[in-house]
Design a protein that fits this description.
225 residues, mainly alpha, 2 strands
C-alpha cells in the first residue's frame, strides 16, 4: 500500500516527459525555499528549476532570477542573468505560454550555496510581498496586461545590466513578477512605475552629462588660447 501511494504521489507531481507539476497553492517564496532544499547537495540547473514550476513559470522564473540582482552595486551577476531574463520577458511580450531557454542556458548549474542565499534572502526579506499581495485589479495582471508588463520588465532588465544600477530596477522587476504570480494588478502597476521612473532618471542623468560636456566644450572654446 505504501509503494502504491508513493507511485500515485510521484504520478501526481510528474507530467509528460517527467516534468514536475507543482502545487499551485504553494506561494512563490515557499517554492524558492523548496528549490533550495532540492538542490542543497549538488545545486540545480536552470532546466531543473524550470521543470519544477507550474503554469506560473514565467513569473516564478523571473522572480527567482531577479533576486540575486537585488544586492546593491553588484557587478557580474546581473550581466549574466540579464540574458535569460531578457529571453523570458521577450517570450511573454510575444504571448508565448511556456518559458523556453536555449539548452546551453538551461544546462547552467546554480550552485547550492547560491540557492541557499537566494532562499534565505527571499524568506527573510521578501516574505512581506506574500503577506501584502492578493488577487486584485486583475485587469492589470492577466491577459494582454501580461504583455504590457513584459515590456516594462524589458525596460527594467536593460537598466539592471548597466554597471552599479541594478538594485532599483530589480525591485521593479520583482514586484511585477510577484504581481503576475499572485494576479495582483497593484503590484504589477507599482513595478511598472519603478521601472519607468528609474529609466527616466537614468535618461535624465545621461542627458545632463551630455549637455554638461557639450557646454564645457563650448565654454573651453571661448577661452583665449
Amino acid at each position: 500500500m505504501t509503494q502504491v501511494h508513493a507511485d500515485m504521489t510521484d504520478a501526481a507531481h510528474t507530467g509528460d516527459g517527467g516534468r514536475h507539476q507543482d502545487d499551485a497553492g504553494r506561494g512563490a517564496i515557499d517554492m524558492i525555499v523548496h528549490l533550495a532544499r532540492e538542490g542543497e547537495r549538488d545545486g540545480l540547473t536552470l532546466r531543473d528549476i524550470r521543470d519544477h514550476l507550474d503554469e506560473r513559470g514565467f513569473g516564478l522564473m523571473i522572480l527567482i532570477l531577479s533576486i540575486p540582482c537585488l544586492v546593491p552595486a553588484l557587478y557580474g551577476v546581473p550581466q549574466v542573468l540579464g540574458i535569460p531574463l531578457l529571453l523570458l520577458a521577450g517570450q511573454m511580450l510575444v504571448g508565448r505560454q511556456e518559458p523556453w531557454l536555449p539548452s546551453g542556458v538551461l544546462d547552467r548549474r546554480v550552485p547550492s550555496s547560491w540557492l541557499k542565499r537566494m532562499a534565505d534572502f527571499a524568506d527573510n526579506r521578501l516574505r512581506w510581498t506574500e503577506r501584502l499581495s492578493r488577487a486584485r485589479l486583475k485587469m492589470f495582471a492577466d491577459g494582454p496586461a501580461e504583455q504590457v508588463a513584459a515590456f516594462f520588465m524589458i525596460v527594467a532588465i536593460l537598466t539592471i545590466v548597466l554597471p552599479m544600477t541594478n538594485t532599483v530596477p530589480s525591485v521593479g522587476l520583482a514586484l511585477m513578477a510577484a504581481g503576475l504570480i499572485q494576479r495582483d494588478g497593484l503590484f504589477v502597476l507599482a513595478g511598472m512605475g519603478v521601472a519607468a521612473a528609474w529609466a527616466l532618471f537614468l535618461g535624465l542623468v545621461v542627458a545632463g552629462v551630455v549637455m554638461g560636456a557639450s557646454w564645457a566644450a563650448g565654454f573651453a572654446g571661448l577661452l583665449p588660447g
